[in-house]
Amino acid sequence: MAQKNRLATGGRINRNRQLTFKFGDNVYSGFEGDTLASALLANGVNIVGRSFKYRRPRGIVAAGADEPNAILQMGASEATQTPNVRATQQELFSGLQCRPTNGWPNEQFDLMSYIGKVGGRMMPPGFYYKTFMYPASMWETYESYIRKAAGLGRSPTENDADSYDHVNRHADVLVVGAGPAGLAAALAAGRAGARVILADEQSELGGSLLHSDDTINGEPATDWLASVIAELSALDNVLLLSRATVNGYHDHNFLTIHERRTDHLADRAETGKVRQRMHRVRAGWVVLATGAHERPLVYGNNDLPGCMLASAVSVYIKRYGVIPGQRLVLMTTNDFAYQTAIDWHRAGREVAALVDARRNPRGERVAQVEKMGIRVIRGSAVIDVLGGKRVAAAQVAAIDEQGERVVGAVEAIRCDTVASSGGWSPAIHLSCHTGSKPEWREDILGFVPGKTVQRQLLAGGITGSYGLQDCLEQGYQAGALAAQKAGFNAVKPASFSIPCVKEQSAMPLFHVPHTLPTSRAPKQFVDPQNDVTAAGIELATREGFESIEHVKRYTAMGFGTDQGKLGNINGMAIAAKSLKQSIPQTGTTIFRPNYTPVTFGAIAGRHCGELFEPKRFSAMHAWHVKHGALFEDVGQWKRPWYFPKPGESMQRAVNRECLATRESVGILDASTLGKIDIQGKDAREFIGRIYSNAWAKLAVGKCRYGLMCGEDGMVFDDGVTACLGENHFVMTTTTGGAAGVLEWLELYHQTEWPELEVFFNTVTDHWATLTISGPNSRNLLAELTDDIDLDREAFKYMDWRQGTVAGVPARVFRISFTGELSFEINVQANYGLYVWEKLFEQGEKYHLTPYGTETMHVLRAEKGFIIAGQDTDGSAHPCDLNMGWAVAAKKPFSFVGKRGMQREDCVRENRKQLVGLKTRQPEVVIPEGSQAVKDPDQPKPMEMLGHITSSYYSANLGRSIAMGYIKNGINRMGETVCYPQADGTVIEAEICSYIFFDPQGERQNV
Amino acid sequence: MSDVLTPEVDIDATAKVAVMKQLPEPGLRPVRAESPLHHAQLDEMAVAAAADSASAGVVLCEQKLRGHLVIRGDSKDRQFALSVTKVLGLELPGKLQSARAKDASIRWISPDEWLVVVPGDQAFAVETQLREALDGHFAIVNVSGGQTIISLSGPSARDVLMKSTPYDVHDRNFPIGKVVTTVFAKTQAVITRAGEESWEMVVRRSFADYCWLWLQDSCAEFGLAVQQDKGNKTMVFQTG
Amino acid sequence: MLYIYCPHCEEHREEEEFHYGGQAHVARPKDPDACTDAEWADYLYFRKNTRGWHHELWVHAAGCRKFFNITRDTVSYEIKETYKIGEQPAISE
Question: pLDDT (tens digit, 9 = 90+) per residue, A127-155?
Fold first, then answer.
């Protein structure tokens, strides 16, 4: 297991700790401190995957977040599968297992590549749109094949057992990026006493200092780095986060940081440890010190393994002690990249040539390189490379001064590595997230952040300043200023002295010309991740796509998981040239969150599984569980749905519960109903303004049903309100409507009628509500109370009384949602279960039967009682519901909804009205949602008359019952309507009153 | 049922408000009260794991079955503030503040709302005294059954809060005595800083189980110990 | 995620504590019954769709439960001011 490209010395790796890992089916070894990418390069692995569309072999290009090719599928087990991991950012650990994302059957031999070879011209941009458009019905079939071919990685099919979470943080100053600028910023802000967070995506803080030969104030940069980290670590007010990518910059300086806490240690997190954490940061000020990404040059076959970024080659040599080849050809437009040739040469391997596009480079590094004996070819470029699975030679030719044409003979230079540098692009991604429009700077040939409304400062490479001295100084000033703006005192200025290297300006070159026209030249890749070529972009502009955003969508440039970090600027330059306009005229696409891919685990945090959504329980929940209830979600509440006996079907259980309630006595946990305590001398007036019916005369001790409407006159909630005292009421709401109704009351009180003296408080959770219903409910209650006169005259229907039930003080409301004699017992919730159990102790002789929401629905539907939200949908006013009796139009105050229900449309003929529906065949239950038509044989589209809102089988009536809307239904009693079903059958039903049972209401008045 | 003494029986048709003594009278027959986290069997857990609690990063305790009264009124009304102070022996706290004495505490909730917490058996007495003392436009609501207090203490209590609430719980922003009503996981809580390393959250009854599950999960990396509720006077006479 | 200053709590709080209540200063007509259908429809349904400074109603739902108004730029989301119900904004739209 020789690491053939590992240098004998150097790098920030621990050579005493060898780690073995698996890539595909092969086992390799690396060292602690390696990234997966550096370890693969050390082992001489050329091909790390196949390209997205053409299936061309691809190798490692970069050393950081900008890597487009080494996108791997990680995970040693099914449960730990993670797609889209950049090998350049994944630290090596012992036992790591990964495989290429693309490539079938494997990355070395890919069947799809033959299509790519024949093709290219067969798969131009828009290929998928153009090819798979027709017929539309086949799209799903196409898509599954495209997905397999596309190979975008896969998610695990087993549950991820690791734990993820969120942490909310607040900082005076958040510094993004811990390169020289960021470190200096954090140092200044930290010294000022501000709460500082310094976050960096890499395993170590330091950025470019980690592979720098520079000296700072006379000491090696790495020593300076160590001392700064020591100072920052000692400050209580500074939080240092490594392996933490600031991936989103949102409104009002809210930023998200994706921290990978254990991904560098093992396939799974240790028990109890959090694998990844999302920090949700609200920052006073943000210092963006995100640096810059090197831009590769675009030339023929530039995607062959062995073609790399110049700076990445230096990083591998100096940070990891890995040299990714034997013979290097370096192509550059600038002085900075000369460093790579120097590094390669010093590592003891051959630099075959340094090809500079500029005619007459004269910087200090040029002289240094020539002194080393390295051949510098001026005014030239690598126009394409030769090779199969790895670069074998670079084709070098002279080009004109504008970089538009090849003007000399082509020389093939043998090499296995071609490093290129077209300059640097500031990493403006986060700035773009805030909506700031990037601005082009001709002097640096790059976009920098534009104007912003955020409290944001910039420092270092992101501003287009790449010199170490500038970065440190800008960083320190930005950190000091941010702290000052956040209210801290100024800090002492710091000075940095760095030996200066004189550089000459760079040449604007993005797309290297070829002897052939772009469309016929070997493929020149702009966005290797999405296989977007220079020819493809030119084709897009020829096909009429002029906006860069359209070019992006048509070619898919920048749509990969790398968001075009490497290729977007080149792509824009090529589009601009093709459109014969400038880059600023062409503009740039906008980067959006997230900066690098984020796992779903980190996004979800703890909000998953049992904790995905709060489950609300009543005080009697444990009893329901113990007695076999199945539960229904009503809002966040878990309400008993029905209580099946062993082996009993739902329908049979519901039939049994319904019959038992009407025949003897049933009990329902009604605790979830919203309850609002209303106190104040104007409470009655307020209620009268909010409800549609009259409240002026409701006496203490009495209850009344009310309808609540919006200003449009449409019903949105209902419930019973009891008068507890002259200035004291308790209002009940639907279970789901509780919070909304309370906010509604507050809205009117606070914004419209603040002069009314009234207070609203929720008491939903305070009271447990136990509803006993049925002819024996009075007898049962009598067993448990001796201080409430239950006589039918003393305690009438719609009265409430106070007393004790089972020894517990209670308010008992004689109200009914079943149409039976019924009592709602309200006790403080701490005693709810106790009283519930006492009722069962005494209830045995009455066969007390617990029932759930399903039986409640059936029983209320038998009586034609609506459920707001089920039988109403915001388009029905009280008269539509045939509940005109609940509208007191003569009330002196124009109550909420009154004017609305008088609008022209509300009083017209032929509105849909709620009616009852009886099927011709009594055993057939119409599915809820079924649409009513008069004649099922009429041509489509049919005239819809309305739809079914509630539909059940009623055991008490021995037939099905339904409620639903029918146009002008109240005047169409006795007519027959049809409900065509999806299976082609038609259910016929007769329009009738929706009060199916006990129309005189005799049973609740006994 | 003759062994049960009842405080009030009928409706007073002229009453302005209905004040209700909501706790059972102490009698021969014990009446079981269950706090919102009763089902979690925290006391049993506390006894079982007493030995581990020293090393735990977070210690949790349900301060259960207390008397919770919401007071509404005008903070600018001097008489209102004085009357509250007279009854409770506590200053009416201003914005985002709380005050506490041995047996009672009061939390600011909103410009016209406070939460008073007293021993469980004193809610009715305190409500009655307040009603006697107060005048004009005010309201008092007994919400004792509707919420509970979960206290969190220990060196990692703050870290757990940071996982749970977007509010800034840093010393600088959240000194001892401060109280905020805010988001807690996907529900809400009234969070008070009770001490250097101790916090109290008032949560609604129906959400208490969710909060408890959330806290167990969030505390996992620090170690969680449960403590018995030592201040629960209500239980004494009910089980007697 | 906005960071909103509650004028009642006198603190900035996270957006998740608040509910949005639509355009501010839409007063309920004093005498609804005297409104024509068109006037009532205007009150009910018609709102500005401002690009720029916009006055809007919010409620501190998970905090003090009080309503208040915000002047916010609908393009940049910048919040210029928050003020209590009954108070007038410093900036007009």
Answer: 666 666 666 666 666 666 555 555 578 88
- Model confidence over A913-969: pLDDT tens digits? 999 999 999 999 999 999 999 999 999 999 999 999 999 999 999 999 999 999 999
Of B112, B166, B220, the CB nearest to A280: B166
Percent of residues, chain A, with pLDDT higher than 90: 90
Amino acid making up residue A62? A
From residue A840, alpha-carbon distances to A79, A153, A589, A776, A854 in Å are 47, 58, 69, 13, 21
Name the neighbours of B, counting chains with at least 3 Cβ pairs within 8 A: A, C
Q: How would DSSP label each residue in A830-886? A: GGHHHHHHHHHHHHGGGT-EE--HHHHHHHHHHTT---TTTT--SS--TTTTT-GGG
Window 23-62 of B, Cβ < 8 Å to A: 23-25, 27, 29, 31-36, 39
Distance CA A282, CA A286 (A): 10
A904: contact with C, CB 8 A cutoff: yes
Phi-psi map region of B71: left, alpha, beta (phi>0 left; psi -120 to 50 alpha): beta
Q: What is the pLDDT of residue A97?
A: 97
Q: Sort out which chain A residues have CB atoms less than 8 A from C41's CB and list them.
A: 903
CA–CA distance from A171 to each of A186, A234, A279, A285 (Å)?
12, 17, 11, 8
Peptide bond into A593 cis (omega under 30): no
User: What residues contact B88, with CB distance under 8 A and at least 6 apart?
Assistant: B101, B104, B106, B116, B126
- Residue A988's SS3 state is strand
Residue of B nearest to C1 (CA): B166
Question: A284: nearest CA in chain C?
Answer: C3
Are C43 and A711 an interchain contact pair (Cβ–Cβ within 8 Å)? yes
Give the max Cα distance, chain C: 43
pLDDT tens, residue by residue, B69-124: 999 999 899 999 999 999 999 999 999 999 999 889 999 999 999 999 999 999 99
B141/A763 CB distance under 8 A: yes
Least trusted range by pLDDT, from A294-308, A546-560, A876-890, C39-53: A546-560
DSSP H or E run through A339: helix A338-346
B100: number of Cβ within 10 Å: 16
Question: Of A776, A738, A778, A792, whose CA–CA distance to A760 is shortest?
Answer: A738
Q: Tell me the pLDDT band of B237, cut-offs 50, 70 and 90.
A: very low
Please give, rounded to a whole number of angstroms, the shortest distance from the CA of A895 to a CA of chain C. Answer: 9
A251 touches chain C (CB under 8 A): yes
The torsion angles phi and psi of A189, rounded to 5 degrees, stand at -65, -35
Segments forming the whole domain that contains residue C65: 3-27+37-43+51-84
Residue A1 has pLDDT above 60, yes or no: no
Summarised one tens digit per residue, pLDDT across range A481-514 is 999 999 999 999 999 999 988 888 999 999 999 9
Chain B nearest C-alpha distance from C61 (Å): 9
> Rounded to the nearest 5 degrees, what angle is found at the Cα of A292, between the Cα atoms of A289 and A295?
175
CATH H superfamily, domain B67-145: Heterotetrameric sarcosine oxidase (3.30.70.1520)
Measured between CA atoms, the residue of chain C closest to residue B184 is C62
In order of their start, the domains of chain A are 14-150 (3.10.20.440), 163-292+426-485 (3.50.50.60), 296-422 (3.50.50.60), 509-581 (1.10.10.1100), 674-762 (3.30.70.1400)
Tokens of A335: 């002085």
For B38-64+147-230, give the CATH class: alpha beta
pLDDT of residue B234: 45
Contact C9 B166 (CB under 8 A): no
Q: Which residue has the tokens 């609501």?
A: B141
Count how many pairs of residues, chain A against chain B, have C-beta atoms within 8 Å: 205
A107 with A26: CB under 8 angstroms?
Answer: no
